[in-house]
Amino acid sequence: MTSRKYIRLGYADELRKEKEYEKAIQQLEANVIDYPNDSELKLNIANIQIQKNEEENRKKREQVESQKKIEEERKASLLDKQIQQAVLSLELGEYNKSVVQFEKIRKEHPDNSSFMKPYAEALMYTDNIKQAMPILESLLHQTPEDIRLNTLYAQALYRKQLYSESVPYYKKVLSVKKELPMMTTYVDVLYHTKAYPEALAYINEILSVQKSEEVSILRRTVRNEYAEELTRKKNYDLALELLEENEKELPMIQRLCRKKHDYMSRKR
User: Fold this and answer.
1) Is residue 267 part of a domain?
2) 41: burial class by Cβ within 10 Å (0-12, 13-18, 19+)?
3) In this structure, is residue 100 part of a structural domain?
């Protein structure tokens, strides 16, 4: 009888190690029938039952986590497709449609910020500057060196006529790459902030790459304003030099008209 008991105990232990808890318990319960007063057997059964319960709970948790992961992956895949569609609308110039798509994504995924940069860009293109600015500020706080974000925020400040505030953002962008549209806008910023020497330097750089009558007119305007400021400061030599440069650039017909006017004045 005793040998049968220990055979069952050994077999039950092997089953326990293989996580065959129910079979292990059956072997031990068979021993209890033969040894009803053996408290150690009952303790072993209780311990294996605990292990069985823990294993079942672990499997349930794994199943729940697996289902949760599958659901999250499904949602992430759906979100990626929604973002791709909104970005595509933006790239195709369908700005209003893009904004609607991004706002739907934002409503459905309020904790996700992966799409906020193109969303802010879409807002800029649809003249929703006020709505775009806090988004850009938040993104710039996270990645202050992002050139696209600096470009968008500089443009937002410019369009709100916050010229002085836009200067550091334009400088950061232009220190990385100088593109003519950005340089031309920055010249206007410098003009409005009365940074005339720097404005003239940028204008000359633009005209060295691409001739433009519009930019040439802007240069003459800046020179005139700068000359007025220099005159107020009694720096007459430099003021005169600027005005003479403007005189040289005037189209021939304007110079002839001016000469005719001067001639007629003297004749009177």
Assistant:
1) yes
2) buried
3) no
